[in-house]
Amino acid sequence: MTFLSTIIAFVAALGLLIVFHEFGHFLVARWCGVKVLRFSIGFGQPLLRKRWGKDQTEWVIAAFPLGGYVKMLDEREGSVAPEELSRSFNRKPVARRFAIVAAGPIANFLLAIVLYWLLFILGVTTMKPVVGTAVPATAAAFAGFERGDTITRIDNEPVATWQDARWLLLSHAVERSPAVAVETVDASGLTTLRKMDLSGVSADDLDGDFLKKIGLTTFQPSVKPVISSVAPDSSGSRAGLLAGDEILTVNGSKIALWEDLVEKIRTSPGTRLMLEVRRAGQVMGVEVTPDTVSEGGKKIGKIGIGPQIDHDELEKLLVEVSYPAGTAIVKAIGKTWETSVFTLKMLGKMVVGEVSWKNVSGPITIADYAGKSAQMGLSPYLGFLALISISLGVLNLLPIPVLDGGHLMYYVIEILRGRPLSPEAIETGQRVGMMLLFALMAFAIYNDISRFIPS
Hints:
- The chain is an alpha+beta fold.
- About 45% of the residues lie in helices and about 20% in strands.
- The chain contains 13 helices and 16 strands.
- The strands form 6 sheets. A 4-stranded antiparallel β-sheet has the order 5-4-6-7. Strands 10-9-11-12 form a 4-stranded antiparallel β-sheet. A two-stranded antiparallel sheet has the order 1-2.
- The protein is elongated and about 95 Å long.
- The two termini are about 25 Å apart.
């Protein structure tokens, strides 16, 4: 993955989401008889502009791409010709103004439904929820999970993939559920119902690798410590390691599986290791010092070698999930609804301190995810777009002045009072809203930077 491909994936995602959001405002405004003066993707200095349509709406691509807007005819923002007063936004009944403002977030939810629908039709090849060795002294270990167990249901919800399992368990962990029913099937076909206690999950546990924090690991076939490839200019290459070498010991400790070797190397960045290697029937010693790299904010060791994989065994752990068009649309609507509700719950728990604010991501992390998902293929990228579209829809519905939700809040107050708020009250609210948004953005960018700086 290159920096350029990441930027392209991020810009494409951002552009699609902004266009759909603003087109929702634009379309409903036109339906409600409001004249649209400008449709802008981005803020600031226009880079490209063109007038088009019977109203000569100005279509703009601006310099600062993190957002967009639809400017409508409005007496509060300039003089309006008498013959066009009926097409002014501020002259429309409150119900129509409400519909125009709500249309943006709704467009994002509709986009997510379409994306999930395509995703469910195209199908996804992913990992079966087969459990590896449970991490000691965790919820999974206390529940008795065994290596090789396949998760089939969680609280009567069917589970086909690790994504399904993670989503359902995360939903229960947010609620601190004390007894989550997890049905598993072992290699012999025996079904077992296990109870997982997630009441002790902390706010920090919901950040990062959540499944590992509750003790669940992905099953990996037993891989012998035999090297299949050595990266050029790596510490393994400099030490003289070759494809076909079998690692017998590291600093005198016997190595039986590839994962044992990986653990030794990862925990020894910059530390000299003595390997005992079998090559062409001969046993020899090789000294290697793992390179120090950053991963997830931590320093780990790597020597640039790859294992010999039994692809037949790996294929058995994969499953392709797809649905007919009718079933796919029902599941897409359900997935969008569940994700929206879950996002709201997470936001609420962040406010009361039950979930860490480290989960808030800014443009740097989103760009990184965009690039990684695009590199993985069309299906992961569609899933990423759907998730971000939902997040954008939920964020814009929050009752914060400046956001769509803030304007909707004003209209609800207008309906209850029978008259709109004073311009002074609205202006004060806008200032407070801008401060809140700037503070949230600054915090999100701080989180982004923290993720990419090693601890």
